[in-house]
Design goal:
- The protein is α/β, with parallel strands linked by helices.
- The termini are far apart.
- The chain has helices spanning 2-26, 48-74, 145-154, 165-170, 172-180, 202-220, 237-245, 265-279, 291-306, 324-331, 343-346, and strands at 105-109, 116-117, 132-138, 160-162, 184-185, 227-228, 249-251, 255-256, 282-287, 310-316.
- The longest helix has 27 residues, at 48-74.
- It has eleven helices and ten strands.
- 42% of the residues lie in helices and 11% in strands.
- Helix 6 (202-220) packs across helix 10 (324-331) and helix 8 (265-279) crosses helix 9.
- The strands form two sheets. Strands 1, 3, 4, 5, 8, 9 and 10 form a seven-stranded parallel beta sheet that branches. Strands 2-7-6 form a three-stranded parallel beta sheet, covered by helices on one side.
- The radius of gyration is 46 Å and the shape is globular.
Amino acid sequence: MRSALGLMLASVVAAIVIAGVWFWTSSPRADAAPPQTTAASQADPLSAAARQTARDDVDTTAALSKRADATQAAAPAAAPAPAPVQAPVAAAPKCANPDGLGISRTVVVDTTGGPGFGFLQYKQYDFLTDHEVVLTFDDGPWPTTPAVLKALADECTKAVFFPIGLHTTYHPDILRQVAAAGHTIGAHTWSHAHLASKKITEQQAKDEIEKGFSAVKLALGANPAPFFRFPALAHTPATTAYLGTRNIAMFSVDVDSNDFKSKSSDEVINNVMTKLDKEHKGIILMHDLQKHTAQALPTLLRKLKAGGYKVVWMKAKTQIETLPEYDAMMAKTEKPVASGRPIGNVVQTVAE
């Protein structure tokens, strides 16, 4: 009996031992089990201080980002190609002649009341300094004018032109070349009449002045500058007073080239340079319809440069308003019409 009970007890103990060994070797351990996932809880709302801190962080980041962008744009290697920038409109072309006479300065004239320039007659405004000159040309437009324009362009300088109204009806295209080259254009009466002559009435003098300006306007399609020079520099108290009421500046001269009397281009050059050696500055009077002047100008401009002279270009603050009655008068003026045919087709030599 005791043997049977002992045998049963031994069997139970053996079973317990076997079960324990199986459990230890076969069941998974806690440290090897996969992590358990749980639903995330909703975040608590930010406090006011936290929200301000976050906003400050954004503002600071944006500022830093802008500075970084600016720095990056400044870096030539890393920056992307910038958007094309539109070029300035109507930029003045650079002088093709690096040693050209050029323009030392440009002055704008307020012509209110009709100021006078040129010390031969008007000693009001001494605006030129030592070795400064103003280039002026009378009596055009004429077939010689383009040669004058070329000489000025070659030296990259500018002048003031005083055309005769009647001549503008002959050569309006040449006057438009003067305007296209950027020069200042005034007027020099309608027919180059001597306005101080006793045969000229005040009304006739007024007509000469106004018809001259209206003729220039008709040729250009735009109002000229309120700049005027009397033919032969012949003025009267009445004509100067009239120009004052029209706010037109009067031009005289400091250095007369006397080119209308000169027999050669060398004589024109000598006249100008000799007088400049005495005056040292001033308004130079020349005539663009004189062939000797056209021939002399390239050399004369180079001599001015070599002598240390500088060109001052005069412009008007406002353009003149021509009078409608004279504009209408000029519109009715009969103007020669060029046929465009070569001269050889019109005039032929048949015998010599």
